[in-house]
Amino acid sequence: MAQLTVIVQLTVDTEQAPTMAARLVETLRTAVDLPIDRMVVDGGHVPRQRALPSAKLRIQPEARRVLVRDTPIDLTRLEFDLLLFLCLNPGRVHRRSTLLAEVWGVAEHLGSRTVDVHVRRLRGKIGPGFDPITTVRGVGYLVDRDAGFLIESV
């Protein structure tokens, strides 16, 4: 005798999940035409939706959208890319030359003021009372892992 394990994973609305699981189990039982005592179903598990951590700043990379306290802010392409790079690589100080290479895509030094100006504009758009970007004088910039940001994925 052989044992067959079938795993089905679907993405559905949370409210639909229990009904959908029950319908799939019943359909499978009917389709394989096995007596109930020969079929073990572990289909009652519906994962709970994870609550998103409280985040003052949410970045939606696929939509290239940033929300501060649930309000969208308008960023230029470079401002968005700079913020995303810093938040994807938190807890590290990033030198201005590294940021120029990674965000601007230039190997030569445009001058550290370019990065400084973009960070200043970014801070202005994020607004007062919340600044996830820390300046490390004479070196560069960093975003702390606990700075209150969330990068959302689809």
UniProtKB/TrEMBL annotation:
Superkingdom of the source species: Bacteria
DNA-binding residues (ranges): 49-145
The OmpR/PhoB-type domain, residue ranges: 49-145
Pfam family name, one: Trans_reg_C
Keywords annotated in UniProt: DNA-binding, Phosphoprotein, Transcription, Transcription regulation, Two-component regulatory system
Coiled-coil intervals, chain numbering: none
Name assigned to this protein: Transcriptional regulatory protein glnR
The organism's taxonomic lineage, starting at the top: Bacteria, Bacillati, Actinomycetota, Actinomycetes, Pseudonocardiales
